[in-house]
From TrEMBL:
Function: Key enzyme in the regulation of glycerol uptake and metabolism. Catalyzes the phosphorylation of glycerol to yield sn-glycerol 3-phosphate.
Gene label: glpK
Positions of glycerol binding: R83, E84, Y135, D245, Q246
The name this protein goes by in its record: Glycerol kinase
EC number: 2.7.1.30
Length: 501
């Protein structure tokens, strides 16, 4: 039997990469390139969508070359992407009309407060599952339409297309100005705050409230189906899946049963819990979101805790403070001391996401004394990720009544054993990393392969999942409770630094 290959494009916050997988779910080849982070004002974060498209084409070519494969040897290609990042482009020229506004960007905080009115953050939660926050794409679209001269009129005439990064890539991959498909999948659509979670269609009442014309919107499709065929270097290859990066990781971690959970450690961290075929409303600071939908099958929903800054805190420690030269240096530095020396770092650089949703919060370092060294700060950087995750796990239990007994983990930070041990310690449950840690790409590949017959069903995908490493708790309950209380004191110090207006 001839081996079948599936490629996945992972268009992330700091880089784009392409991974080619074989039929056993093994990695054949990888290529990756970073793109610029643009900071026009404090709290503003942008990307150049044209630069990203150029880098995506480069990494697809690079991965195929490293794999020794031609494009016509690929059965399918899938897409996973940074969510909520918003791009508007001219349908006739294919050019973006403005830099993409990144999910971390806070410029829409005042608009969100205005939209909330007397009801507040929960105005659209019953329809969209989301609190009003600068995180989501809908307010970003509205901001662009109101602030780029002449854009609203062009949008209302149908000249402008809106998309999250999946839509931008699918449109370009399938022809761009020459017949490109303007689509998105349910997972990405669910992060715009414009889609009704129950109907999985754009919600006209929310569009009207945000003053977003329906003419700019892509068609909503399932996460696993052929949207179109590639052109150019991927001529003839079916483009067969799209999943927001965190939902792709759920799929790649084979969390197909109710109560199964995963945490992905990237720029931010995102913990998702499978809640089955019905959305579970959150009263404890989580969001209700689409997990995935396979073709015509019923959708699967998740509760999600979104943490804005985890891996990005290590980057800040490296790039802004210059304490380390490479991210890999933080683990030995942190391991050179036994604890954090009483210091806590709350990385609320662009506000706090789950479970607080405080746009007014800003980063703080608390508990400093002259005893604290750079090694203690390195440890505090890593521990910030563990404690933020603990807060989300607690909220999930309060909302769902489901107690997580193990946590599947993936993403770049899982290579840090000190962090993973601390994560197990503060949760009090085992933390498990799979053999293929790149589960975001794997999930996109799985969904594309299901749509094109590479794999037959979910049971076959489950059989591919293999454990690589496991960390078990070793911290006493007394120490855990004491440290957690100190963490909460530090979090409270981060509130109220920035006025929402």
């Amino acid at each position: 039997m001839t081996d079948k290959y599936v490629a996945a494009i992972d268009q992330g916050t700091t880089s784009s990469r392409c991974i080619v997988f074989d039929q056993q779910g093994g990695i054949v080849a990888v290529d990756q390139q970073e793109h610029r982070q643009i900071f026009p004002k404090p709290g503003w974060v942008e990307h150049d969508a044209s630069e990203i498209w150029t880098k995506v084409q480069a990494v697809v070519g690079g991965a195929l070359e490293r794999a020794g494969l031609r494009a016509d040897q690929l059965t399918a290609i899938g897409i996973t992407n940074q969510r909520e990042t918003t791009v508007l482009w001219d349908r006739a020229t294919g050019e973006p009309v403005h830099n993409a506004i990144v999910w971390q960007d806070t410029r829409t905080a005042a608009l969100c407060t205005e939209l909330g009115g007397e009801v507040g953050q929960d105005r659209f939660r019953d329809r969209t599952g989301l609190p009003l926050a600068s995180y989501f794409a809908g307010p970003k679209v509205a901001w662009l339409l109101d602030n780029v001269p002449g854009l609203r009129q062009r949008a209302e005439r149908g000249e402008i297309a809106f998309g999250t990064m999946d839509s931008w890539l699918i449109w370009n991959l399938t022809g761009g100005t020459d017949g490109g498909r303007h689509v998105t999948d349910v997972t990405n659509a669910s992060r715009t705050m414009l889609m009704n979670l129950e109907s999985q269609e754009w919600d006209q009442s929310v569009l009207d409230a945000m003053n977003v014309p329906a003419a700019v919107l892509p068609e909503i499709r399932s996460s696993s189906e052929v949207y179109g065929t590639g052109v150019g270097q991927l001529a003839g290859v079916p483009v067969a899946s799209a999943l927001g990066d965190q939902q792709a990781a759920v799929f790649g971690q084979t969390c197909y049963g109710v109560g199964e959970a995963k945490n992905t450690y990237g720029t931010g961290s995102f913990l998702l819990l499978n809640t089955g075929n019905r959305p579970v409303p959150s009263k404890h600071g989580l969001v209700t979101t689409m997990g995935y939908r396979l073709g015509d099958e019923p959708p699967v929903y998740c509760l999600e805790g979104s943490i804005a800054i985890t891996g990005a805190l290590v980057q800040w420690f490296r790039d802004q403070l210059g304490i380390i030269n490479d991210a890999s240096e933080i683990e030995p530095l942190a391991a050179s001391v036994e604890d954090n020396g009483g210091a806590y770092i709350v990385p609320a650089f662009s506000g706090l996401f789950a479970p607080y949703w405080r746009s007014d919060a800003r980063g703080v370092i608390a508990g400093l004394t002259r005893y604290v060294t750079k090694a203690h700060l390195a440890r505090a950087v890593l521990e910030a990720t563990s404690w933020q995750t603990r807060e989300v796990v607690d909220a999930m239990y309060q909302d769902s009544g489901v107690e997580i007994t193990t946590l599947k983990v993936d993403g770049g930070m899982t290579a840090n054993s000190l962090l993973m041990q601390h994560q197990a310690d503060v949760l009090g449950v085992p933390v498990i990393r799979p053999v293929v840690a790149e589960t975001t790409c794997l999930g996109a590949a799985y969904a594309a392969g299901l749509a094109t017959g590479v794999w037959s069903d979910l049971d076959e995908l489950r059989a591919h999942w293999k454990r690589d490493a496991e960390w078990t708790p070793s911290m006493s309950e007394e120490e855990r409770d004491r440290e957690y209380a100190n963490w909460h004191k530090a979090v409270e110090r981060s509130f109220g630094w920035e006025k929402s207006d």
